[in-house]
Amino acid sequence: MNNVYVIGVGLIGGSFAIDIKSLYPSCNVYGIDSNSNHIEEALELGFIDSEATIQDLENAEVVIVAIPVDATLKVLPEVLDHISDETIVFDAGSTKEDICLQVKDHKRRRNYLAAHPIAGTEFSGPKAAIKGLYKDKTNIICEVEDTAFKLQEKALGLFSELGMRIRYMNPKAHDKHIAYVSHLSHISSFMLGKTVIEKEKNERDIFDMAGSGFESTVRLAKSSPAMWTPIFEQNKTNVIETLDEYISNLTHFKTLMEKEDFDAVYKEMEDTNHIKHILNGIK
Amino acid sequence: MNNVYVIGVGLIGGSFAIDIKSLYPSCNVYGIDSNSNHIEEALELGFIDSEATIQDLENAEVVIVAIPVDATLKVLPEVLDHISDETIVFDAGSTKEDICLQVKDHKRRRNYLAAHPIAGTEFSGPKAAIKGLYKDKTNIICEVEDTAFKLQEKALGLFSELGMRIRYMNPKAHDKHIAYVSHLSHISSFMLGKTVIEKEKNERDIFDMAGSGFESTVRLAKSSPAMWTPIFEQNKTNVIETLDEYISNLTHFKTLMEKEDFDAVYKEMEDTNHIKHILNGIK
Fold it and tell me: Residue B74: which residues within 8 A CB-CB, separation 6 or more?
């Protein structure tokens, strides 16, 4: 593998670059980023060799698009305009329907693989990039049949070398399910953080009384608004549906407490304990 | 230290026993538990030396009450009935107002220290007990002035040996703040788990698509209903208030999405990112 171009040298793109450089030490990795500080940081961290531009992509063997999903809608068609016939382009966006629609009729559609590696942390930027981020993680591939077979093979080979397991899904199903298991968690966490901050004007009180449980549920509230706002925008319909159901479940729980029906409160929790068995497989 | 009686040999009581045995290898640690399987497990794990009953407490130097808070209301006065003048009793309950009220006029009130170590995991039972659980954790002490000075000293000395930092608070303030930073997190997590389980009948889909973010926000939904139901019951007024505010914040977020005001959605998240600085101190 040679001439890998990473567009967006943050947590996601940077972690791909780190693992690719470790697998292919002689591979040239180029970085493209609208933030010149990020390019400098990525060069210093050593996971890219030099800066490049969209115009250079005709030399690319692999292009990884790892930028906010609103920017992807704009940049991905430009990327496809500039690559060669042999280039494989994949993205890492947390929405798939709008992105797939955007390039549906592009003459180089077959050079693009729609991907969503379910991996990340609450941090962002080049310094957040880590080795092995993708190991044992799921990568959801959409519309695989619309990617040229040989190019699919190249991308899937790389994912396999990174230790990922693959699931195939259509973009509509992806966006619907991911609203539940990812997008809703972020909003529940952000609003939990907001509720506590609003109440606890005196931060020492939060700091001193908060334990690891609070930290765990509020962790995602550290996430980047620049990354998450366009995700919520593109997946608006599904996310609003999940919020409706979540709010309705919370309201029901509150009503049970108001009615002092603590047997029912117990049962709500007991039924949900079942999540243990589901989560046992994650990590 | 000798003759320590642990009432409730689960995660919290067991972790105290483990650390006390490590600090005082020759200390006799007795276990009292309504669940005889738990006593057997605790004996096998070796963190108690023998089983005891409430009637044996006149020999106790220290009694640790680590049972669900509804059971504490019943058991704590019985404990105080049976101890000697020199015994210090402390609890570990996540509510303080009702418990302090319950023993307010007990003739041995001065033998009791109302404590809430902010420590735990989502697991329960003797096997969940771990060494060092209390290291660097906060222990909130209520109504310290109502405990005999020499007995305070003994308990605080132990907490210090376990590595805990102490905060003093009145029971009303404790219950109000803890509703925000602990009780609400548990409900937000349980209802998130419920929302996702209800939607995703096909568990493989959750399993495959859920990442570490979902796992983190839903972790507390594994918690014990037997422990949490009486906490919510005793802290009903405060918890309902936090739920009102949480639901209102979620509804506002949803309204912003429905109005497609994504600048405001961005700002909601940006303002809450501030939680980073608050959380930096926790661990």
Answer: none
Q: What pTM was computed for the model?
A: 0.92
The interface predicted TM-score of the complex, written ipTM, equals 0.92
Residue after which a domain boundary falls, among B154, B169, B184: B169
Tokens of A157: 């080979």
Asked if A82 and A60 count as a contact pair (C-beta separation under 8 A), the reply is no
Domain of residue B121 covers 4-169
B121 and B223 share one domain: no
Judged by CB atoms closer than 8 Å, whether chains meet at A195 and B228 is answered as no
The whole-number pLDDT of residue B56 equals 97
Q: Cα A128 to the chain's mean position, in Å?
A: 14
Subunit contact A180:B167, Cβ cutoff 8 A: no
Residues A126 and A187 in one domain: no
Residues of A in contact with B281 (CB under 8 A): 207
Yes or no: say if A4 and A17 are a contact pair by the CB < 8 Å rule. Answer: yes
Could you list the beta-strand ranges (E) of chain A.
Answer: 4-7, 29-32, 50-51, 62-65, 88-91, 112-117, 138-142, 165-169
What is the distance in angstroms between the Cα of B132 and the nearest Cα belonging to chain A? Answer: 14
Residues A159 and A266 in one domain: no
pLDDT, tens digit (0-9, with 9 covering 90-100), for B182-215: 999 999 999 999 999 888 776 666 767 888 889 9
Query: pLDDT digits over A102-153, tens only?
Result: 999 999 999 999 999 999 988 999 999 999 999 999 999 999 999 999 999 9
Structure tokens of B154?
Answer: 């003994």
pLDDT at B283 over 60: no
